[in-house]
Amino acid sequence: MRLNARHRVSGTASSSSSGSRRPTALTRPPLMLREAQRTPLLLPGLLWQGMRQPPDASNRECLARLGLDRPTTFAERAYRALVNAALVRSRAG
User: Fold this and answer.
1) Rounded Cα gap, residues 81 and 48, in angstroms
2) Tens digits of per-residue pLDDT, 34-56?
3) Gyration radius of the chain's alpha carbons
4) Which end of the chain is more exposed for a tag (fewer CB within 10 A), N or C?
5) What is the pTM for the complete model shown?
């Protein structure tokens, strides 16, 4: 299931039948991305870290669940790098 950008950042997904919201398994990294959006100076560091560090197996699984396993556009690649860095930072601390 591919989630749109609003659901990716908020960390929630809509249930198709009832329309209710449920938390995804990736709540923490999107919260870190929200914090980075409030402090834009954090975004270049996250982007750089995400581009330099390839995702490990668990990060690849998370990225696949978000539909970012095969990015095609530059925007998708940048978002994948940001999410990858957020995942790495959330596990480190």
Assistant:
1) 8
2) 777 788 888 899 899 999 999 99
3) 13
4) C
5) 0.64
